[in-house]
Amino acid sequence: MTNLKERTRALEAEADQIRQGGGPDGVARQRRLGRMTARERLAALFDDGIFFELGLWAAHRMYAEWGVIPAAGVVVGIGRVAGRACLAVANDATVKAGAMFPMSVKKVLRAQRVAERFRLPLVYLVDSAGVFLPMQDEIFPDEDDFGRIFRNNAVLSALGIPQVAAVMGSCVAGGAYLTVLCDTVLMTEGSQLYLAAPALVKAAIGQEVDPEELGGAAMHAGVSGTVDFKEPDDPSCLARIRSLLALRPEARRGGPADGAEDVGPARDPESLYDLVPDDPRGGYDARDLLACVIDRDSGQEYKADYGPTLVTMYARIGGRPVGIVANQRRRCTSGRGEVQIGGVLYPDSVEKAARFVMDCNQDGLPIVFFQDVQGFMVGKEAERSGIIRAGAKLVNVVSNSVVPKLTVIVGGSFGAGNYALCGKAYDPWLILAWPNAQYAVMGPHQAAETLLSLRLRVAEREGRPLAEDEVGRLREAIRSQYQEQSDIRFGAARGWVDAIIAPHETRRWLAEALRLIPDDRESPPFRTGVLQV
Predict the structure, then answer these.
(1) What is the DSSP string of 315-348?
(2) CA distance linking residue 229 with residue 226, whole number of Å
(3) CA angle 430, 434, 440 (to 5 degrees)
């Protein structure tokens, strides 16, 4: 039985392996071409080489027939460039020559979405062979496929969000539009930018042409006029990007200028490993968890004695005011004397949270959701008390919220509880998860028993009832499959969370996200749909 710290260390070791990209052979190829790796480029771009990485686990174990695709062949980071907050996307040419897989595309789309929400300048460091052709049917045509990236380039530009593209290797076919749809275009000598490579040109029109003459940096800088800045190599190109971004005014960020300072948390964030059990069935007091995240003496709990399985609180994180909605994981007693199970949503807690979310929208406060939810209460009494109606209220107000929303999954994220507490489908500006998090429609035990009962019913109906040992094997097979699919790495591989973070890093991630929120954002008026009474 592992504990939370051991699980975190194991995942970090696995994450370090992912950061190696395509390994020594891929790195050696970049060196032969006189180029840096994607991570080296980002380290040179960002101040002090520091950035928060998004989507590290993308494509994890997803494309086994094509080999290992670390981080989906794309590295995405948020950091500061010349003191200005910025988001950068870098193709990793050590992984399949930077070819774009389905999850590579979805990762770039998510990066664009995050940049739009936070109004962050976007830098694209392009070094890609283009679409991974064996999977073109999953990459090319749909609204969340490759072409959407270029549509977003145009929309972001129209919104006034700066975009800089640097061709630092290959930039072929449709990917060329990403570059040219950006505000500023740079290109290093020895790189290529063209709609069709020489081999395709010959096949299409019979013309034989030299790659440099077709789409080299000198041609695009001096003949086509496509490139704004031609640079001799990677370091000079990255230095140029830094100097260009240094000229741009920085948006005012970080919430109301009320003079509040970051006073630090009441409890050492490292104590989270002792407070929160690795086993999702374990209990703890959510207030202890929050004491490791929010600023010391800043918490003011809203309706503390009502709806006890959710903790709603006004607080500050890094000096920035927020509203917090967190699952209470210890057993509670309601105001009516009823025992309530920790991590379960009851009508009173859900209605309290719905009202709190509305108040945060009224006041313009960002909301942070801490998910460790088993789901909504079920059974005759729950249905008679209107659990569906109450849950719909919370889903309604979360769906219609106009304030920034940040979500942290610190344990289970099951069923409709995921929806009501701002899961990925409900537009969190950033969604993070701890290494012990689980993400599924229900827990592995409940799923195994539910699916097993269906299988047994089918077998009996077909006149072939299963023996006891067969039932045991089937139960374990279902449980094992469901356990694998509820592992947070499975969800992170598919982009359901932006990052898996160490628990003690939660405060740092949230404080940075809150600092990045632009003060001058324009939000539509807050309205809800019809609320059932």
Answers:
(1) EEETTEEEEEEEE--S-EE-TTS-EE-TTEE-HH
(2) 9
(3) 85
Cβ-based neighbour number of residue 486 at 10 Å: 22
Q: How far apart are CA 345 and CA 375, in angstroms?
A: 6
Tokens of 129: 């062979």
- pLDDT category at 259 given cuts 50, 70, 90 is low
| Mean of the per-residue pLDDT values of the chain | 92
Query: For the segment 160-173, what is each residue's pLDDT rounded down to a tens digit?
Result: 999 999 999 999 88
- Other Cβ atoms closer than 10 A to 97: 19
Q: Do the strands 310-317 and 300-302 form a parallel or antiparallel pair, or are they unpaired?
A: antiparallel
Q: How would you write 431-495 as a 3-class SS string? A: EEECCCCEEECCCHHHHHHHHHHHHHHHHHHCCCCCCHHHHHHHHHHHHHHHHHHHEHHHHHHCC
Do 270 and 294 touch, CB atoms closer than 8 A?
A: no
Using CA atoms, how far residue 385 sits from 55, 286, 382, 442, in Å, is 41, 25, 5, 22
CB 267 within 8 A of CB 291: yes
pLDDT at 499: 98
Comparing CA positions, the residue from 64, 67, 188 lying closest to residue 126 is 188
Contact call for residues 494 and 103 (beta carbons, < 8 A): yes
- Tokens standing for 380? 């005759």
Query: Which residues make Cβ contacts (< 8 Å) with residue 360, sequence separation at least 6?
Result: 323, 366, 367, 401, 403
For 300-316, the DSSP string reads EEETTTSSTTEEEEEEE
pTM of the model as a whole: 0.93
**Residue with token string 């034989």:** 208
CB-CB contact of 404 with 431 (8 Å): no
Query: CB count, 10 Å around CB of 141?
Result: 10
At residue 252 the predicted structure's pLDDT band, cuts being 50, 70 and 90, is confident
Give pLDDT tens digits for 419-456: 999 999 999 999 999 999 998 877 666 766 777 787 77
Higher pLDDT among residues 14 and 522, named by residue: 14
